[in-house]
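stuck on this fold:
=====
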Amino acid sequence: MKPQLLTEISVVGLQQVIEALSESGEVHSILVFAADENGWTAEQLDPLLQSSDIQILGGIFPQIIHEGQNYTQGTVLLPLPYVLDWSVIPGLSDAAADFDTPLAGLADQWDRLPGPATHMVFVDGLSTCIATFIEAIFMNLGLEQNYLGGGAGSLSFVQKPCLITPRGLIQDAALLMRLPMLSGIGVSHGWQPISEPFKVTESNKNHVMTLDWKPAFEVYRQVVEAHSGQTFTEDNFFDIAKSYPLGISKLDAEVIVRDPLMLKEGQGMICVGEVPEGSFVRILNGTAESLIGAAAEAHQQAEKAYTQISSAAPEFGCLIDCISRVLFMQTRILEEFTAVSGDYPMFGALTLGEIANSGQDYLEFYNKTAVLGLLSTSSDSVTE
């Protein structure tokens, strides 16, 4: 079944489409990628989610993607002919939360299920313990299956319900879904360092307080203003910072990008995802050409990984791309979509952070990164 674009933004319009799909008798679950500007609330959506005869699972994102175009309003629906296994993990901003116990139980359940699978993971992108949670997934579920997902939420940076589940619309949580599909995953970002490494000497989850024992924003501002020729004011932090992310140095892996969103208490910076104390970061910058090139690289990686496990064509491509890449590239983001396109339907979301494993490397929560998944059902694929 192919992804469908619904331009009608009302919940009533969504309900009509879902009822028609339900009456067909061929659809048992629907993946939903909805745009934040639809304006849906839990009060509007919950009655539909809780009463539907078919599973409705997904997220509300800053923008959505369908066939090479991004949309600030509308919904992409992917009807599926089977019931999905899924789970919600709450408390994604609780530093004391026990993620291991529910994930270990989930791993035990899913390990018993037959056939190949891809794990789709959506999180509230404004939660403060996302990277800790992703590490817990890695420790409990491992990398035998591929992962694909991202951060739901709003560019207003106001946390609100953004994860769509049969229980209702929820926030500050994670939604895990087991798709009975083969997949090839590609990950790349295109940002390059423009500074020497700085040690993160004080941080608390996603709040970076000091770099090399100096106020974090003081260090950041000195580098960015010198490179950009721009000056930070009281109200333009994100306008400049969207072009200058932080890069966390990792051993034997690509730099993990962190998006600075806003200032806290004048000299600290709030990022999408944790920045561990004791880690080393560089300030990064890129060009439209380097980002488009990175998207092409993600496409090549995904195709190579997919052809190693299947001789059938992918049923569809799912692109999880950072919303701040759109803010940086403006209309040239369409060139990035072209770079990841192929002979398959394409859909996806523009997110607050991206989730994927790069081959058999460590599972990560990325920022400002393009993640492409090429997927097909096992019944239509031939594995080696």
Notes: The chain has a mean pLDDT of 94. The CA atoms of residues 311 and 382 lie 6 Å apart.
